[in-house]
Amino acid sequence: NLLKTNPKTNSINLEFCEIEALDPLLPLLGQFTELQELLLFGNRLESLPRNLSQLRKLEKLDISNNLIESIDKIIPSLKSLPSLVDLHITLQHDDEEQLILDSLPNLQRLNGAEIETEKEEKEDQPAIQVEMSEAIDFGSEDLNLKQEDLEKVAIMYDEIRNLWRDADPSYDKKLAEDFDSHVKDIMGELSQMLKQGESNHLIHGYMLKAKHGLYLICQEKITQLIIKQNKKAGALLKNVNQALSSLFGDSLSSLFSVHMKYQEKIKAMKSDMEKAMKETAEVLEAAEQIEKEAETHKMEKERLKRMLDEEKEEMRQELETLQNENKRYLDIIIKHSKTNAESALTGRTVSPGDEDLEVQEEIQAIDKFHLADQEFLL
């Protein structure tokens, strides 16, 4: 009917339909070409068809609270869904969660929780997780609500209905309606809680609450029957049941209050850690900036040292040139002095010739050279 009335629907809800195998329904589901969400919560599925690729647009799949005993067996089926990003599935052990994350790298949400957020918490808050696990011992008991639990409640309730048929056959229809309505309310509430992606100990708490709620309808109806037959005994039983329910409620409240306490503590520690990480990042950034400035200063120092070495080399070469020039001019002066001395001793007047002119030119050159030397030094 849905295929005829709404073939373009993007969501199909088949929760609590007692489906034992999906293979017969797969060809029909494949005709919903726009299907993005498939809810199979609370059925009797033990496995999935190996190839689900025809559900090419399916993004969200809820197969929690079925009879699937091994996650390994359905991994190939889940991997065949090309668009799957949101998965709800009942996990028996922590290593099954890691198996799903490793096998489905494109998955974005698992049991209502963002996968990236969970990874960050595991990386950033290892100390918090250790503290939580040390403070609360969840034990190894399997607290998940299974199809067998629903069947046990149904069998017990049928026995109560048989007792009521003997006492008041007209009440049987009301009993059936109350049971169906009660189970749907309990399982619907549990489904919503599981989709919120709470931590394991809270999920166990919700499971216990759901189990207790399922048996409450049995307790209520058998108490009503006893009251009908023996008001005094029924009233006493009713008071006992109320006291027990109150104790159970207090226990759950304590569990949830502990959770809130640790949530607040985790939040505060996470805030402190983020602040510390921010301060660390700022210190690292400042250190990196200082390192860059130090490198710049080092390069500038090396550049100035090279310039100084080059100038020293130029001055050394210039000094060597000056020394050579001074030596040459000194030789000329000595030679000229010897010539004048010989002329004075012989009493002979020497007319200025080419050699004297050369000497005079050399002396003038010496004077100019010394003047230039002084200007250079200045």
Descriptive notes:
The protein has 378 residues and is mainly alpha-helical. It has helices at residues 2-5, 26-29, 71-79, 94-103, 115-124, 126-135, 147-167, 172-195, 200-229, 231-346, 354-377; strands spanning 11-13, 37-39, 60-62, 86-88, 109-110, 113-114. α3 packs parallel to α4, α7 runs antiparallel to α8 and α10 (231-346) packs antiparallel against α11.
Task: Give the helix/strand layout.
Blueprint: H1 2-5, E1 11-13, H2 26-29, E2 37-39, E3 60-62, H3 71-79, E4 86-88, H4 94-103, E5 109-110, E6 113-114, H5 115-124, H6 126-135, H7 147-167, H8 172-195, H9 200-229, H10 231-346, H11 354-377
Parallel strand pairs: 1-2, 2-3, 3-4, 4-5
Antiparallel strand pairs: 5-6
Helix pairs in contact: 3-4, 7-8, 7-9, 8-9, 9-10, 10-11
Query: What structural class do helix, strand and pairing data support?
Result: mainly alpha
The radius of gyration is: 49 Å
Share of residues in strands? under 5%
Helix content: 55-70%
Described by the principal axes of the CA atoms, the overall outline is elongated
Query: Distance between termini?
Result: 108 Å
In short:
The chain has 11 helices and 6 strands.
Key features of this structure:
378 residues, 6 strands, 11 helices, six-stranded mixed sheet, mainly alpha, elongated
